[in-house]
Amino acid sequence: MAESTGLRERKKAATKAALSDAALRLAIAKEGIEAVTAEEIAAEAGVSTRTFHNYFPSKEAALLYDFHETTGRLLAGLRERARTQPIWDAFRDATIDMHFDEKFDIDDMRCREQLIHSSPSLIKEQSGQFMELFAEAIDIVAASTGTSKDDLYPRLLLGAALVTMKSSTEHWLTDPGDRTLAETITEAFALFERGITRPPPAPAT
Protein backbone atom coordinates (compact mmCIF):
# COMPACT_ATOMS: atom_id res chain seq x y z
CA MET A 1 0.00 0.00 0.00
CA ALA A 2 2.79 2.39 0.93
CA GLU A 3 4.58 1.58 -2.34
CA SER A 4 1.41 2.31 -4.33
CA THR A 5 0.92 5.61 -2.48
CA GLY A 6 4.54 6.54 -3.12
CA LEU A 7 4.18 5.82 -6.83
CA ARG A 8 1.08 8.00 -7.07
CA GLU A 9 2.86 10.85 -5.34
CA ARG A 10 5.84 10.55 -7.69
CA LYS A 11 3.52 10.61 -10.69
CA LYS A 12 1.78 13.70 -9.35
CA ALA A 13 5.11 15.43 -8.77
CA ALA A 14 6.25 14.50 -12.29
CA THR A 15 3.04 15.88 -13.80
CA LYS A 16 3.36 19.11 -11.84
CA ALA A 17 6.97 19.48 -12.94
CA ALA A 18 6.02 18.86 -16.57
CA LEU A 19 3.26 21.48 -16.42
CA SER A 20 5.60 23.97 -14.76
CA ASP A 21 8.28 23.40 -17.40
CA ALA A 22 5.68 23.82 -20.14
CA ALA A 23 4.44 27.07 -18.62
CA LEU A 24 7.98 28.44 -18.55
CA ARG A 25 8.75 27.40 -22.13
CA LEU A 26 5.55 28.96 -23.46
CA ALA A 27 5.97 32.15 -21.41
CA ILE A 28 9.50 32.57 -22.78
CA ALA A 29 8.37 31.89 -26.35
CA LYS A 30 5.45 34.32 -26.07
CA GLU A 31 7.42 36.87 -24.02
CA GLY A 32 5.06 36.83 -21.06
CA ILE A 33 2.77 34.57 -19.08
CA GLU A 34 -0.17 36.83 -19.96
CA ALA A 35 -0.06 35.57 -23.55
CA VAL A 36 -0.24 31.93 -22.45
CA THR A 37 -3.42 29.97 -21.66
CA ALA A 38 -3.97 27.01 -19.39
CA GLU A 39 -5.11 25.01 -22.41
CA GLU A 40 -1.79 25.66 -24.16
CA ILE A 41 0.19 24.66 -21.09
CA ALA A 42 -1.75 21.42 -20.76
CA ALA A 43 -1.28 20.60 -24.45
CA GLU A 44 2.44 21.35 -24.25
CA ALA A 45 2.76 18.98 -21.28
CA GLY A 46 0.66 16.29 -22.95
CA VAL A 47 -2.22 16.30 -20.46
CA SER A 48 -5.80 17.54 -20.43
CA THR A 49 -6.84 21.02 -19.38
CA ARG A 50 -8.83 19.39 -16.59
CA THR A 51 -5.63 17.81 -15.30
CA PHE A 52 -3.95 21.22 -15.31
CA HIS A 53 -6.73 22.70 -13.17
CA ASN A 54 -6.59 19.71 -10.83
CA TYR A 55 -2.99 20.56 -10.03
CA PHE A 56 -2.79 24.34 -10.28
CA PRO A 57 -5.20 27.20 -9.58
CA SER A 58 -3.53 29.42 -12.20
CA LYS A 59 -0.86 29.54 -14.88
CA GLU A 60 1.22 31.76 -12.58
CA ALA A 61 1.17 29.09 -9.88
CA ALA A 62 2.27 26.53 -12.46
CA LEU A 63 5.23 28.59 -13.64
CA LEU A 64 6.37 29.20 -10.06
CA TYR A 65 5.66 25.66 -8.84
CA ASP A 66 9.25 24.82 -7.94
CA PHE A 67 9.20 27.54 -5.27
CA HIS A 68 7.01 25.30 -3.10
CA GLU A 69 9.44 22.41 -3.42
CA THR A 70 12.46 24.57 -2.59
CA THR A 71 10.58 26.18 0.29
CA GLY A 72 10.09 22.80 1.92
CA ARG A 73 13.77 21.99 1.58
CA LEU A 74 14.79 25.42 2.87
CA LEU A 75 12.58 25.14 5.94
CA ALA A 76 13.87 21.65 6.71
CA GLY A 77 17.46 22.84 6.42
CA LEU A 78 16.79 25.95 8.49
CA ARG A 79 15.07 23.95 11.22
CA GLU A 80 17.96 21.49 11.42
CA ARG A 81 20.71 24.11 11.39
CA ALA A 82 18.97 26.36 13.91
CA ARG A 83 19.53 23.66 16.54
CA THR A 84 23.29 24.28 16.51
CA GLN A 85 23.86 27.62 14.73
CA PRO A 86 22.83 31.24 15.28
CA ILE A 87 19.72 31.79 13.19
CA TRP A 88 21.37 34.27 10.78
CA ASP A 89 24.15 31.79 10.02
CA ALA A 90 21.61 28.99 9.76
CA PHE A 91 19.62 30.92 7.18
CA ARG A 92 22.75 31.71 5.13
CA ASP A 93 23.95 28.12 5.12
CA ALA A 94 20.49 26.66 4.47
CA THR A 95 20.22 28.97 1.45
CA ILE A 96 23.63 27.87 0.16
CA ASP A 97 22.62 24.23 0.68
CA MET A 98 19.77 24.72 -1.80
CA HIS A 99 22.34 24.72 -4.66
CA PHE A 100 20.09 26.73 -6.96
CA ASP A 101 22.90 27.01 -9.52
CA GLU A 102 23.20 23.21 -9.71
CA LYS A 103 19.52 22.29 -9.46
CA PHE A 104 18.24 24.69 -12.13
CA ASP A 105 19.48 25.72 -15.56
CA ILE A 106 21.01 29.19 -15.21
CA ASP A 107 19.50 30.51 -18.44
CA ASP A 108 16.08 29.28 -17.35
CA MET A 109 16.58 31.00 -13.98
CA ARG A 110 17.42 34.27 -15.72
CA CYS A 111 14.44 34.02 -18.03
CA ARG A 112 12.17 33.25 -15.09
CA GLU A 113 13.36 36.31 -13.19
CA GLN A 114 12.85 38.51 -16.25
CA LEU A 115 9.34 37.15 -16.69
CA ILE A 116 8.52 37.79 -13.04
CA HIS A 117 9.84 41.36 -13.06
CA SER A 118 7.75 42.23 -16.14
CA SER A 119 4.52 40.58 -14.98
CA PRO A 120 2.25 42.02 -12.26
CA SER A 121 0.45 38.69 -11.97
CA LEU A 122 3.69 36.77 -11.42
CA ILE A 123 4.90 39.38 -8.93
CA LYS A 124 1.65 38.93 -7.02
CA GLU A 125 1.95 35.13 -7.09
CA GLN A 126 5.54 35.19 -5.88
CA SER A 127 4.70 37.71 -3.15
CA GLY A 128 2.04 35.34 -1.88
CA GLN A 129 4.53 32.50 -1.87
CA PHE A 130 7.00 34.55 0.15
CA MET A 131 4.27 35.41 2.64
CA GLU A 132 3.56 31.68 3.06
CA LEU A 133 7.27 31.06 3.60
CA PHE A 134 7.40 33.88 6.14
CA ALA A 135 4.44 32.43 8.05
CA GLU A 136 6.10 29.01 8.27
CA ALA A 137 9.62 30.24 9.07
CA ILE A 138 8.72 32.77 11.77
CA ASP A 139 8.18 30.02 14.36
CA ILE A 140 11.67 28.68 13.70
CA VAL A 141 13.22 32.13 14.04
CA ALA A 142 11.28 32.96 17.20
CA ALA A 143 12.19 29.67 18.87
CA SER A 144 15.85 30.08 17.92
CA THR A 145 16.05 33.61 19.31
CA GLY A 146 13.93 33.05 22.43
CA THR A 147 11.33 35.56 21.30
CA SER A 148 7.66 35.55 20.39
CA LYS A 149 6.71 35.37 16.73
CA ASP A 150 4.67 38.51 17.34
CA ASP A 151 7.75 40.46 18.47
CA LEU A 152 9.39 42.92 16.11
CA TYR A 153 12.88 41.42 16.28
CA PRO A 154 12.24 37.96 14.78
CA ARG A 155 10.04 39.47 12.08
CA LEU A 156 12.74 41.97 11.09
CA LEU A 157 15.42 39.30 11.13
CA LEU A 158 13.40 36.93 8.98
CA GLY A 159 12.44 39.68 6.55
CA ALA A 160 16.08 40.71 6.23
CA ALA A 161 17.17 37.12 5.63
CA LEU A 162 14.55 36.57 2.91
CA VAL A 163 15.49 39.81 1.16
CA THR A 164 19.17 38.93 1.36
CA MET A 165 18.51 35.46 -0.05
CA LYS A 166 16.49 36.79 -2.99
CA SER A 167 18.71 39.82 -3.71
CA SER A 168 21.97 37.85 -3.68
CA THR A 169 20.55 35.21 -6.03
CA GLU A 170 19.22 37.83 -8.46
CA HIS A 171 22.52 39.74 -8.32
CA TRP A 172 24.50 36.59 -9.12
CA LEU A 173 22.22 35.73 -12.03
CA THR A 174 22.75 39.21 -13.48
CA ASP A 175 26.53 39.15 -13.25
CA PRO A 176 28.14 36.03 -11.76
CA GLY A 177 31.65 36.99 -12.84
CA ASP A 178 34.11 34.48 -11.44
CA ARG A 179 32.16 33.97 -8.21
CA THR A 180 30.01 31.04 -7.27
CA LEU A 181 26.46 31.54 -6.05
CA ALA A 182 27.55 30.33 -2.61
CA GLU A 183 30.22 33.05 -2.46
CA THR A 184 27.71 35.72 -3.47
CA ILE A 185 25.21 34.57 -0.83
CA THR A 186 27.96 34.54 1.81
CA GLU A 187 29.02 38.06 0.86
CA ALA A 188 25.45 39.35 0.96
CA PHE A 189 24.74 37.93 4.40
CA ALA A 190 28.05 39.32 5.67
CA LEU A 191 27.26 42.80 4.30
CA PHE A 192 23.86 42.80 5.97
CA GLU A 193 25.32 41.55 9.24
CA ARG A 194 27.92 44.34 9.29
CA GLY A 195 25.18 46.91 8.72
CA ILE A 196 23.79 48.66 5.68
CA THR A 197 23.36 52.22 6.92
CA ARG A 198 26.61 53.05 5.13
CA PRO A 199 27.88 51.54 1.87
CA PRO A 200 31.07 49.48 1.93
CA PRO A 201 34.29 51.24 0.85
CA ALA A 202 34.99 51.21 -2.87
CA PRO A 203 37.58 48.63 -3.96
CA ALA A 204 41.09 49.93 -4.50
CA THR A 205 42.06 50.62 -8.11
In short:
The protein is mostly helical.
> How far is it from the N-terminal to the C-terminal residue, by CA?
66 Å
Number of H- or I-type helical stretches: 11
Radius of gyration: 19 Å
The largest sheet, given as strand count, sense and whether it forms a barrel, is: none
Low-confidence stretches: none
Decide which structural class fits the backbone: mainly alpha
Oligomer: single chain
Order of helices and strands: HHHHHHHHHHH
Morphology call: globular
- Total strand segments: 0
Fraction in helix: over 70%
> How much strand?
under 5%
* Average pLDDT reading: 89
Can you put this structure into words, describing what you see?
75% of the residues lie in helices and 0% in strands. The protein is built from eleven helices and no strands. The protein has helices spanning 2-29, 38-45, 49-55, 59-63, 66-81, 87-96, 100-103, 106-117, 120-145, 152-174, 181-194. Helix 2 (38-45) packs across helix 3 (49-55), helix 5 runs parallel beside helix 9 and helix 9 packs across helix 10 (152-174). The radius of gyration is 19 Å and the shape is globular. The model has no long low-confidence stretch (mean pLDDT 89).
